[in-house]
Amino acid sequence: MAGKGVMLAAVGGAVLVTAGVAAYPAMVWLGNKMYDQNVENFTKGSPVVYNETEKSFSSRTGTWKLDTPLGELVFKSETKFGMTGAETLIVPDYESAGFKAVFKELSIKEYPKAEMHMGYSITKQSFTSDGFVEPFKISTEQVTCDFAGVKFDSAVAQNVNVNATGAEVVKSFRSNSGKSSGNVSVPGVSCVGTSDGVTAKLENLTFKIESVESYPSMYDFRVASFQLSDDKNKKIAVKNLTFGQTADAGSGVFNFRSALYADELTFPNDMTGGSVELGRTGIDVRMAEVKDADFAAIVDFYRDMALGEFADNTSDADIMASPIAQVPMDIRIQELTSKSANGGSFDAKGSAQFVIKDIMKARAAIDVNFTKSYADAVGVGEWPDTGVAMGFLKKDGDKYVSSLSLENMQLTVNGKRIF
């Protein structure tokens, strides 16, 4: 029995080896075909030109050229094909005229090492990439900046269509397809003005994005700290800045959220002098229950805007007759909040409902409340009592409150019609 087992294992191994040897040429051939198709897709209708310099059955080398006002930017690529896909290494050609001109313009004397690795997985049917730029310095007559480098990566499904229409984007949301994602990180940047004494410092910038076809379904931008100051001790500082958006299609309709927050803010007070110091400050905006057809119209509108269609070829009357003008908008300020260093607070909530074609029938409302200490902190401490005297504010305990509403072009403040 043992002998038969060994023989069976040997036969099975031989079959696998034979299958692998037979499949290898087919997989490499497929990789070459896909490479040609991707080159065509990437260069068709674009200013990028690809020139192949060497080709063999299992590898390809070439250059990618982009003509700019400063000269050609050239990148070199080398691709190797295997059983499971392909891997490509791309590096900038710093001897090309465009890069030389850029480095001369920015006084970059030491060329930073930079690489991008791209891969294609046949089994996962997706493209991946990652890369880096090592630290470098920029020095001009006005400013000197040190960059701590850049890292990035991405993953793109094979079937992603960057030219997808709104209806196609909706379909991909529903079928959970056409996805891509990317990440960029910058450890730090510091700059010094050579004549005005202005300094700037940024630490730990990260950016994440996820897309469905051409639409960013999620992005997340973060900065751990940023500071800008001058020789007169004026300073702008931000800690833990976050800005993001999400789009959720899981409940049969689309729901959107955009939020901007910072844990600490410092900026000059131009009215009273000194500085304004704030704690947790931000805004959270929602747009809920958008139907598929309406979301498709929104995607098409912004796609046309990005392509310059409305700016160049469309009149106001055309916009009013377009699908975007028929979409009912229901936008809600879930939270608008700020805390001051002296213990004060500001909070507001609001909403707006409108259709562009009937903008005169728009409805909006906002409720505001804040403390006297917050008004003092931002340099408008004398305004609240004036607002009470004029009827724009009411006193409610230790807070000042106001309710504003707009309907059929009539503005009401605290129940009193203004116009």
Q: What share of the residues lie within helices?
A: 10-25%
Overall pLDDT level:
84
- Structural class based on helices, strands and sheet pairing: alpha+beta
Termini separation (Å)? 99 Å
Q: Main beta sheet: strand number and arrangement?
A: 23 strands, antiparallel
Q: Determine the number of helices (DSSP H or I, runs of at least 4 residues).
A: 8
Tell me the number of strands. 23
Radius of gyration: 29 Å
- What fraction strand? over 45%
Low-confidence stretches: 1-22
Q: What is the subunit organization of this protein? A: single chain
Q: What gross morphology would you assign? A: globular
Structural topology:
Blueprint lengths: L1 H42 L4 E8 L3 E10 L2 E11 L3 E8 L4 H9 L8 E8 L4 E8 L2 E4 L3 E5 L2 E8 L8 H10 L3 E15 L5 E14 L2 E15 L5 E14 L5 E9 L1 E5 L6 E16 L1 H15 L2 H5 L2 H5 L8 E12 L4 E10 L8 E9 H6 L5 H8 L3 E3 L2 E9 L2 E4 L2 E2 L2
Antiparallel strand pairs: 1-2, 2-3, 3-4, 4-5, 5-6, 6-9, 7-8, 8-10, 9-10, 10-11, 11-12, 12-13, 13-14, 13-15, 14-16, 15-16, 16-17, 17-18, 18-19, 19-21, 20-21, 21-22, 22-23
Structure write-up:
- The chain is of the alpha+beta class.
- It has 8 helices and 23 strands.
- The chain has a 23-stranded antiparallel β-sheet that branches.
- A hairpin with a 2-residue loop joins strand 20 and strand 21.
- The longest helix has 42 residues.
- It is globular and about 85 Å long.
- The N terminus is likely disordered.
